[in-house]
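Every protein is a chain of amino acids, and every chain bends into a shape of its own. The fold becomes a row of whole numbers, each drawn from a learned catalogue of backbone shapes. The protein below has been through that process, and both of its lines are reproduced in full.
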Amino acid sequence: MTNVLILGATGRTGVSVLQQLLEYKDIQIIAGLRQASDMSRLPKTRYPIQTSVVDINNISSLQHAAEKADVIVNAIRMRGDIPETALVDLDKRIRKAVSCRKNLLTITVGGAGSLKMKNGKRFWQDITFPQRTLPRGRAHTRLRDYLEVLPASASWAYLIPPPAYIPDGLRVGAYQRWEAANDETEFLQKNISYEDFATAVCDAVIERWKGVYLVAGVTQ
């Protein structure tokens, strides 16, 4: 049995991941909630879901939520004018909370703002990047750069959807995956539904992916 803690379990991506992981009999889900009342926002499921109220700013709270986890899926989507280091700081708190756990894998839902352009810049610096999500774009770039220089002993995966990340897109049940590159410009033209991206996250859990991957929908 693999225990998976989902942080951001009531968000659009988190819900999609949760529902698809329930299809695996050898997966036990722990839904991380900001407050107990958020249980009402979880999807209706055939089997009961374990829940844990977790303060992501508190290391002890994270430690308690993750005490039985083998994998942590970080699907938290911070909004507003967040500090550039917000996502790095969160990852550091998670790692400190589970520092005594060997082989625990963290899988983070990445951001398109961190994609690498042919001119050496990142997508968040491009004029076509949405202004309202600039803080998150910067924060995801910092997070990706931080993850990529972690020691080899660290177990992590960072999955990046394309800019056209479609909340209400259909579930095809398939996706395309690319490894990180110095020029990821072509990926900007791709798209994927939340459901198909969640399928990739589930595969990352089962297959224990490690590293940075770009994930898009299959070409029609």
